[in-house]
Amino acid sequence: MRDKKEIEAGGAAIDVLLKHPDVKRVTANINPDLTSRRTSVSSKCKVFTNPYTRLVSDKNYIFDIHPESERQLPDIIKNQVQKVVFEDAPDFEKTDFEKGYKKKRNIGIVFSGGPAPGGHNVIAGLFDAAISTNPENKIFGFLKGPDGIIENEYIEITKELVSQYKNTGGFSMIRTGRTKIDTKEKMDLSKRNCKKLELDALVVVGGDDSNTNAAFLAQEMCKDNIQVIGVPKTIDGDIQVRDLKGNSLCAMSFGFHTAARAFAGSVSNLCTDSGSDIKYWHICKVMGRVASHLALEVALQTHANVTLVGEELADFVDEKRIQKAEEKGDVDYTAYGMTLRNLSRMICEGIVERAKAGKNYGVIVIPEGVLEFINEIQTFIIKFNTIIADYNAKHDTGFHADFSMLEDKLRYLRKLAQESKREGRISVWNTRDDELFNDIPSFFQEGLLMERDSHGNFQFSQVETDKVLMRMVKEYLGILKEEGEYKLGIEKNWYEKTMEKGNLDPDEYGPVLFDNHENGEYLLVRPSIISLITLKQALIDKGLIKKDDLIPDTVKTIYRKSDPTFKTQTHFFGYDGRGSEPTHFDCTYTYNLGLTVFSLIANGATGQMAAIKNLEFEFDKWEPVGIPIAPLMHLEERKGKMSLVLERSVVDLNSNAFCVFKALRKKWLAANSADDNYRKPGPIQLTGNSIDDRPLTLVLNAVDIL
Q1: Residue 78: what pLDDT?
Q2: What digits encode the pLDDT tens for the residues 631-645?
Q3: Strand, helix or coil for residue 134
Q4: How far apart are CA 369 and CA 372, in angstroms?
Q5: Which residue blocks in 306-397 are alpha helix, DSSP H?
Q6: Which letter does DSSP use for residue 452 in this model?
Q7: Phi and psi for 86 in degrees, rounded to 5?
Q8: Tell me, what's the pLDDT at 321?
Q9: Which one, 160, 248, 597, 654, has the greatest CB density within 10 A?
Q10: What's the whole-number mean pLDDT along residues 387-404?
Q11: What element of type H or E holds 535?
C-alpha cells in the first residue's frame, strides 16, 4: 500500500498538472471553433438594412379556409399574407409612424416542442432588432416551454446571454417543453401571466402543434392587445406553406437543413464502412414522424443504396395480384396500398440484386414514420387512438395506468372483440382485428399500444420499425434462398484462379455450377443448387464425380462463397441531429426570422407566422413575410376526436427533388460490378460556399426546365 506521504505528494502533483496552461486549455468547455461561431455575424436580408420597415398586404395569395377555422378563429381568420418592405427613415421627426415603431415594448418568446438547430438565432435576431429600435425594449424568455408561460417562469434576455448562445445548437438558453395550452384554465393562466409582464407581444417558436397553439393564443389575446407571432420550427421539414395556386411562401422550416446534414454525415460514414468491410447492411432509421423529407434529403446527400419514401408507398399498387384477379374475372381490392409484406419484399429485391453483383452489403435509409403509410398498420393506429381516447374519457385513471403490461392490454382488446361478436354490433375492435393483431410479434404489439405523446400523436420514433422490417426481410430472404434466388455472385477471375489452384478445370465445372458461365462477369450458382446435397447430385448427374465420391474441397469453397449471410447493423438518427450545431443556412435563416418577427410586431401584426420566402434561391432573393396561420388549419384526428390543427406537408411526388431521386435510385443501388455511387456531403461549417449551403431538395425544386 502507498503511505500517506506518497498519496499527499500524488495529490499535489495532480493539482499542479490541472493548473498547467495546456491542460486548462484542452479541458475547457469553450474551444476556438465555438468562439468563432459565437462571434460570427449573420447576413441580413436587404429590407432589414433600413432602420424601419412596413407591412404590405398581398391579396394574390389565396387559401382554402376551413369553416371550423372561421368559427373558432374569427378575429384572425381574415389575415392576409404580409410582405415586409422598406420604409425610408422619416423626414418628419416624431411622426405617428415613428412613435409607434419605436415605442417601448415588452416581448415574450417561448420554445415549444423538440429542439431544432438555429433557435437561438431567432432570439438573437429579435433581440438585435428590438434593442436597435429602442434600447428600452425588453425580451423575456419563458423557461421550459409553454409551462413557463402557465407558471410565469421566465428570464430577461440580455446581450451577454445572446452572445453566449448565438449560432449554437439546441434550445439551451431557455430550454423547451411539449405542454399544450389547450384548456380554458391554461389559457386563462397564460393571459394573466402575460399581462403581469405587461407584454405587448408573445412569440411562439415551434412546429405544427405549436403554431396551432399560437393561432388560438392570438385569438384569445386579441382583446388584451397582446400580439402573438409564430415561427416555423421542425427538423422533420413538414411545415411548408403553399397557397391554392401552388405559390410557395415557406419552402422549409428551420432546423431541417442542419439535421439532414448531420444525419447525412453519419450515413455517409456508414456507406464508407459498408464498402470497406463488405459484410454488413446498415439499416438507418431517420426522424420524420409524418413526412419523409429527411429521408429524401439524406438520400440526395449520400446516395445510399436503398431509401424508402413513405409518401410513395401510399400509392403502391400490386400489379401481380391485380393480374391474377383479372385472370379469374375478379377484382382484388387488397392489391391497392402497401402492406408490410409488400414492403419487406421490395427491400429484398434490392438486397438480392446487389448480391448477384457480388455485393452482400449496403445501406438502407428508412423514415421513422414509414408505418404511417402502411395500410394495415395505419388502421391499427387509428383504432388504438380511438380506443385509448375513449377509455381515458370514461375513467378516472388512464388506459396505460390500468393496463400496464402487454398481456393486460391484449386481454382488454380480446374482451372488446368478444363483446362485439356477442352483441352483434359494429365496434372499433372486432374478432378479425384481434386475429390479425395476434399474428404480429409481441415487441411490435407493445410498440403499437404504447402511450401517445402529449398531443395524442402515435410515437413512431419509439417503435423499432427497422427491426420489424428486417425480421420480415430475413424471413423472405430465407425463402428466396430455398428457391435458389438469393445467391452471391462470384467474380469470374476469382473462380478460375481458385479452380486452377485446386487442379480442377474451370471450364469443365463451370457449366454445371453456374447459369451464366459463358457470359457472366459475376457467376451465379444455379437455382437448383441450394445445399451441399443438391450440389453433389448436380456433379453426379454430369459425371464429374461418382456417387461414393466426396465433393472436391475447392468446389465446396466456391459453393460456400456463393451462399450469402445477411448481417445487419441498425442505427437511429434523430436526437443527435436536432442537437447539432446549425449550418450557415440555418444560422442565416433563423437570424432573419428573428428580424422578421420584430418587424411584424412593430407594425401591429398578430396571428401571423414569420417566414422567409424564396429560400430555394440565393440569399439576395430572400423575402421576409408574415403568413396568416388560421387559413392554414384544418380538422384532423387527435386523441380520438377531430381537432383544428395546422396542416403538415408531406413529400410532393411530382417535385423535381423526388423525380431526380426516383430516376437515380437504380444507379445508387449499384447492383452491378461498378463501384458504388456513394456521395460524401462533407462536414457542417458556418463559413464557406458550396452547393450544400442549402437543402438539396430546395436546390433541385428551384430548377426550372421550361
Answers
A1: 96
A2: 999 998 776 578 899
A3: coil
A4: 5
A5: 310-313, 319-327, 340-356, 375-394
A6: P
A7: -60, 145
A8: 80
A9: 597
A10: 91
A11: helix 532-541
pLDDT of res. 442: 82
Based on C-alpha coordinates, what's the Rg of the chain? 31
Where helices occur in 43-176 by DSSP H, the ranges are 67-72, 96-102, 119-133, 146-151, 159-165
Q: Which of 340, 368, 363, 339 is nearest to 351 (CA)?
A: 363
Residue 29: is it exposed, middle or buried by C-beta count within 10 angstroms (0-12/13-18/19+)? Answer: exposed
**Catalytic center residues:** 236
Beta carbons of 63 and 632 less than 8 angstroms apart: yes
Nearest to 295 by CA among 307, 305, 283: 307
Here the cell at position 153 is: 417562469
| Cβ atoms < 10 Å from Cβ of 554 | 17
Please, which pLDDT band fits residue 317 given cuts at 50, 70 and 90?
confident
Q: Is the pLDDT of residue 456 over 70?
A: no
CB-neighbour burial class of residue 256 (10 A; exposed 0-12, middle 13-18, buried 19+) = buried
Dist CA 504 CA 47 (whole Å): 79
Which amino acid does the sequence have at 337? G
Closest CA to 698 of 428, 305, 296, 175: 296
Closest by alpha carbon to 307, among 285, 291, 289? 285
Quote the pLDDT of residue 324: 87
The three-class DSSP label of residue 525 is: strand
With a CB cutoff of 8 Å and minimum separation 6, the contacts of 28 are: none
- Helices then strands, each counted (H, E), the chain: 29, 19
For residue 473, CA distances in Å to 461, 470, 527, 530 come to 20, 5, 20, 19
The C-alpha atoms of residue 698 and residue 681 are separated, in whole angstroms, by: 16
For strands 608-613 and 623-628, give the pairing.
antiparallel
- What's at 157, amino acid-wise? I
What's the mean pLDDT in 153-163? 98
CB 489 within 8 Å of CB 355? yes
d(CA 409, CA 291): 29
Entry field: residues in the chain? 706
DSSP secondary structure of 398-421: -HHHH--SHHHHHHHHHHHHHHHH
> Measuring CA to CA, which residue among 489, 529, 528 is closest to residue 671?
489
- Residue of 218, 153, 209 whose CA lies nearest to 179: 209
Q: Which amino acid is it at 50?
A: N
SS3 state of residue 16:
helix
| Grid cell at residue 332 | 382484388
Cβ distance 89 to 51 under 8 Å? yes
Distance CA 239, CA 211 (A): 10
Q: Note the pLDDT tens digit of each residue in 64-115.
A: 999 999 999 999 999 999 999 998 766 655 578 888 999 999 999 999 999 9
The values of phi and psi at residue 284, to 5°, are: -110, 110
User: Is the separation of the CB atoms in 217 and 654 below 8 Å?
Assistant: no
User: How far apart, in whole angstroms, are the C-alpha atoms of residue 313 and residue 292?
Assistant: 11
Residue 690's alpha-carbon distances to 38, 135, 257, 681, 699, in angstroms, are 22, 38, 14, 10, 12
Q: Is 257 helix (H, G, I), strand (E, B) or coil?
A: helix
Q: Which three cell numbers stand for residue 60?
A: 394574390
| pLDDT for residue 687 is more than 60 | yes
